[in-house]
Amino acid sequence: MHPVDWTIVALYLIWIVWDGLRLTKKSDELEGYFLASRSLPWWAVGLSVMATQLSAITMIGTTGQGFVDGMRFLQYYYALPVAMIVLSVTLVPFFHKARVYTAYEYLERRFDAKTRAFTSLLFLLSRSMSLGVVISAPAIVLSVVLGISVTNTVLLFAVPTAVYTMFGGVQAVTWTDVKQMYLIVGGLVAAVVVLLLKLPSEVSVSSALHLAGAAGRLQTFDFTFDLTNQYTFWSGTIAAFFLFCSYFGTDQSQVQRYLTAKSISEARGSLLMSAYWKIPLQALVLLVGVLMFVFYLFNTPPMLFNPVHDTALRQGAEAPAYAALEQEYGAALSARRDAALAMARSPEGAAGVDDAFRASNAGVKSVRDRAVAFVKRVSGDGAFNDVNYVFPNFILTQLPIGLAGLLIAAIFAAAMSTIAGELAALSTATIIDFYRRFVRPNADDAHLVRASRLSTGFWGLFASVVAVYAAELGSLIEVVNRFGSFFYGSILGVFILAIGVPIATSNGAFIGLLAGMASVAWVASATKIAFLWHNVVGAVVVVAVGVVVSLLDPARRAPAPEANR
Amino acid sequence: MTDDAPSARRSYLAVLLVWVGVLLSLYAFQQHYR
């Protein structure tokens, strides 16, 4: 990367730490540190929530997915607006009125300490591991394209983030998230503009979209009902509805955010911001990938986007076979470029040009598939996949100096906003649900804030170690979502019992939770049902088992706690 | 933003209307450019 671009990244890192610490107030009080004294406006909370979800994996994994697979992934988010409305009506008022620090704290008031401790522990386990993936996945890619070690890349993300999160608490997290969100969206819009400007003069924007559409890159609806396929309209509306209710409604990294809002209506406003903007934002990210596909119709892409594998094959014993494949690839690209230009120049609906373009695109794909199989055979890495290198490679090889630095800074911003939100949530759950609950119930604020800072630092270190030692993890997006899906549906089931089922008892909730998790583990290992549907299985089993056990539970005759009302 | 229920209901209705509009637009987009 050019020194000017490195300077931009360095300036961003310094500025974001300084800005995070500058805007922090009352972080020496527990409510100030964890909940920003419940004082934040809805728009800042809403942007922060979106920034936490938009990780570096989104920036590099989802753009790569747009490049190879098009917009299909957008279906995953179709249920989100409805889930936001349901949560605004149900869980948000409950949490706000309960004046809790964590979502799990409410479960003790409704059920008992073991249900709270168990759900909070599940959150800590799953989230700390997935945070390792959230750090390691982009770190592996960026270490290759920036030419620095994975450890140094992890440190570049994690140390500045840990510093402002440790000292500034959730206020620093929120206000830096707002700025990072501006940087991320600005970077993505700039990438779209550059990609459109780089279209050949005879290819209009409309022609470019027709080319993308002809190659299947603009398919946003797949009405096939197939439980083994996660990117269909049905999994995106039914199964993802459960995932979003669980993620936004019971995951501490999200709940903590709307607890920082001034009032219930401001908290609702922050969720409704996601309802309006999440689908367009994901569409923007995927569109970058789709436009990169169009860009590489007219510009020669590398056969492999991971430069390390490319160099190794060129210098290895199989170099002649690789060169022959590359020659074949060049011929296929050339045929596709001609077919694409012919289609762009023809009037819409002209006979044959679409089919010729599709056939030439299939030819390119066939050679590239063989190249990937070649890498797998030669390197012995059966999980090789270079999709996540497409966008970083494009940034560093095709964008002008300065803009490349800005985009790399935007990827850093996406990583850091996610890490900061998760660190704050991990620290809050550790201190509130365990340290203050079981170890030092009478500790004063100053002591708890000190402990929280140490806890934030610990989780930062833990996630960084996981990140550095994480092995190749396959498709980045799915790995992270898979981690979550083992727990999400079941935890949602517990909250449905808590708030929606007055007869539910603590034993019912606890046994239901264990049954739900066992069911998800069984479904995940014994069937090919797509992971989004695991959320439905978990939630339904927890509620069903919870209701049955509660009906049989002698403790049901005891009056329910006040927080249930 | 206010706490009153009619205002909240109007917000939810607006979200639902925009949601339906976005999905229909995306479908029309897909059909036009396929």
Structural write-up:
The complex is a heterodimer of chains A (565) and B (34). With 565 residues, chain A is an all-alpha fold. Chain A has helices at residues 3-22, 30-35, 42-53, 56-69, 80-89, 91-98, 103-110, 113-146, 150-197, 205-214, 233-250, 252-259, 264-298, 307-315, 319-345, 353-379, 390-398, 403-439, 445-469, 476-500, 506-526, 531-552. Chain A folds into two domains: 3-296 and 396-472, Sodium/glucose cotransporter, CATH 1.20.1730; 307-385. Chain A is built from 22 helices and no strands. In chain A, helix 9 crosses helix 13, helix 18 packs across helix 19 (445-469) and helix 20 runs antiparallel to helix 21 (506-526). The model of chain B has no long low-confidence stretch (mean pLDDT 86). Chain B contains one helix and no strands. With 34 residues, chain B is an all-alpha fold. The chains are: A mainly alpha (565), B mainly alpha (34). Chains A and B meet through helix 5, helix 10 and helix 13 of A and helix 1 of B.
In terms of quaternary structure, what is this? heterodimer
Low-pLDDT sequence parts of chain B: none
Order of helices and strands of chain B: H
The shape of chain A is globular
CATH homologous superfamily title of the largest domain in chain A: Sodium/glucose cotransporter
Structural class call of chain B reads mainly alpha
Task: Tell me the CATH architecture of the largest domain in chain A.
Answer: Up-down Bundle
Mean pLDDT of chain A comes to 89
Largest interface summary: A-B, 31 and 20 residues
List the topology elements.
The complex is a heterodimer of chains A (565) and B (34).
Chain A: H1 3-22, H2 30-35, H3 42-53, H4 56-69, H5 80-89, H6 91-98, H7 103-110, H8 113-146, H9 150-197, H10 205-214, H11 233-250, H12 252-259, H13 264-298, H14 307-315, H15 319-345, H16 353-379, H17 390-398, H18 403-439, H19 445-469, H20 476-500, H21 506-526, H22 531-552
Chain B: H1 5-33
